[in-house]
UniProtKB/TrEMBL annotation:
Name of the featured protein: isoleucine--tRNA ligase
InterPro entries assigned to the protein according to its UniProt record, in alphabetical order: aa-tRNA-synth_I_CS, aa-tRNA-synth_Ia, Ile-tRNA-ligase, Ile-tRNA_ligase, Rossmann-like_a/b/a_fold, Val/Leu/Ile-tRNA-synth_edit
Species in which this protein is naturally found: Aquifex aeolicus
Keywords: Aminoacyl-tRNA synthetase, ATP-binding, Cytoplasm, Ligase, Nucleotide-binding, Protein biosynthesis
UniProt family annotation: Belongs to the class-I aminoacyl-tRNA synthetase family. IleS type 1 subfamily.
GO BP terms, alphabetized: isoleucyl-tRNA aminoacylation
One annotated Gene Ontology cellular component of this protein: cytosol
Database matches in Gene3D superfamilies: HUPs, Valyl/Leucyl/Isoleucyl-tRNA synthetase, editing domain
SUPFAM superfamilies: Nucleotidylyl transferase, ValRS/IleRS/LeuRS editing domain
């Protein structure tokens, strides 16, 4: 009878090391156990390394407004790698983690919680709203701290710094007082990105770019002293191009490239000033047909020409502007920012609605005039037909998947005023890349707002 052979187990033929490591990682169970073993490690290291060369890494704080994400993990792990490297070099490390407990990211989360309960932020006392924000931030500080500890980050977790700690706030006030005493703090107006739906300024890094449809218009401004160019000229207009008609009430100047060539071209009984390099493109886009070039001059020759605004007057604006601005406004100025890639080579300049425009204003005595409030509505500083109109109106949900701008009452009415005053050369809609708020996904505007600044160009004196 044939013997029955035993089935060969191939794993028994392998020469593998034998260890006590479990076959499964079981990370959800093991991670808390490992974190428990590491408790107090930072304190022990500090005791052992006392007196050694000190390595200090300052922690830029995350917002206490939600669970940690991959960005938080990357930030903390990279810092931890640096600290542990310095630790292995024999140094005493000092790493105090912190949290930013103030600002719009936290306020928006609390405001959304109130909305879910049918409560408006404006319906509760400010002190109560601040208390709720403090409570909300405190909750997420603890949640984030536990998660960072689970990542194995070595830090002084038992005493982090919090921007809402009264001691921290008191130190900030004292330091601000010292800066004031040195005379380097001042209050001024400067254009910044502004979200009219979140009603807050935004840093450039907080802005996202998405496609948006806007009116593209060419506008003519009547030149009041064309005889400076030639005694025979009449009906002369400087032509500008813009995709933000709503900024025209804040127009205080037109800028040109002083070294570029400009032509005065006669079209349909009017003499229009445009850059020579852009003339063909301008005539094609506006559908004006052929024109007769009467004169060619350098941009510097146009500097100093005065013009009339299509619907604003100095008499109306002098009530809201400084005398120096009224004296210097509605003139053509030179600017290194003017390029010849699009438009006409003559740029509508509103110092309250753009950084480059602001720089021109500072140079030539034009204040940053921005007659739009924090919710995007025209103020009393514009002519009556425009007052109370909003730059943009929204519809739908404000998120990436379902958001759209349906109309701009301000753009619409400004264009109507241009037509009524025979100042609109042409109009068409274009789609272009436009800055949007990273929080609510709404389009932002450039708007000058009063702010406190620290003068970086002044020497520090003890």
């Amino acid at each position: 009878m044939e013997e029955k052979k035993e089935k060969l187990d191939l794993k028994n033929t392998l020469n593998l090391p034998r260890t006590d490591f479990p076959m499964k990682a079981n990370l959800p169970q093991r991670e808390p156990q490992i974190a428990k073993q590491w408790e107090g490690l930072y304190k022990k290291i500090k005791e052992i390394r006392k007196g050694k060369p000190l390595w200090v890494l300052h922690d830029g704080p995350p917002y206490a407004n939600g669970a940690i994400h991959i960005g938080h993990a990357l930030n903390k792990i990279l810092k931890d790698i640096i600290n542990k490297y310095e630790l292995m070099q024999g140094k005493d490390i000092d790493y105090v983690p912190g949290w930013d407990c103030h600002g719009l990211p936290i306020e928006l989360k609390v405001e959304n919680q109130l909305k879910e309960k049918g409560i408006s932020k404006e319906d509760i006392p400010k002190a109560e709203f601040r208390r709720m924000c403090r409570e909300y931030a405190g909750h997420w500080v603890n949640v984030q701290k536990e998660d960072f500890i689970r990542l194995g980050i070595l830090a002084k977790w038992d005493s982090p710094y919090l921007t809402m700690d009264p001691k921290y706030q008191a130190t900030e006030v004292r330091e601000l007082g010292r800066i004031f005493e040195r005379g380097i703090v001042y209050r001024g107006k400067k254009p910044v990105y502004w979200c009219m739906f979140c009603t807050t300024a935004e840093a450039e890094a907080e802005v996202e770019y998405s496609e948006k449809k806007d009116p593209s218009i060419y506008v003519k401004f009547k030149i009041n002293n064309p005889e400076r160019l030639s005694a025979s000229l009449e009906n002369v207009y400087a032509v500008i191009w813009t995709t933000t008609p709503w900024t025209l009430p804040a127009n205080l100047a037109i800028t040109v490239n002083p070294s570029a060539l400009y032509v005065l071209v006669k079209v349909k009984g009017e003499t229009l000033i445009v850059a020579k390099e852009l003339l063909k493109q301008f005539l094609e886009e506006t559908g004006l047909g052929q024109g007769e070039v009467l004169l060619t001059v350098k941009g510097q020759k146009l500097v100093g020409l005065e013009y009339s605004h299509p619907f604003n007057t100095k008499e109306f604006l002098k009530e809201f502007l400084k005398p120096q601005t009224v004296e210097n406004m509605f003139k053509i100025y030179p600017s290194e920012f003017v390029t010849l890639d699009t438009g006409t080579g003559l740029v509508h300049t509103a110092p309250g609605h753009g950084n480059e425009d602001y720089a021109v204003g500072v140079k030539f005595g034009l204040e940053p005039f921005a007659p739009v409030d924090d919710k995007g509505f025209y103020t009393h500083e514009v002519i009556p037909p425009l007052r109370g109109l909003r730059v943009f109106e929204e519809t739908g949900r404000r998120n990436k998947e379902n958001y759209q701008i349906v109309r701009s009452p301000a753009n619409y009415r400004v264009i109507e005023l241009l037509k009524e005053n025979n100042a609109l050369v042409s109009l068409k809609d274009i789609k272009h890349s436009y800055p949007h708020c990273w929080r609510c996904k709404s389009p932002v505007i450039f708007r000058a707002t009063p702010q406190w600044f620290v003068a970086m160009d002044k020497p520090l004196e003890d």
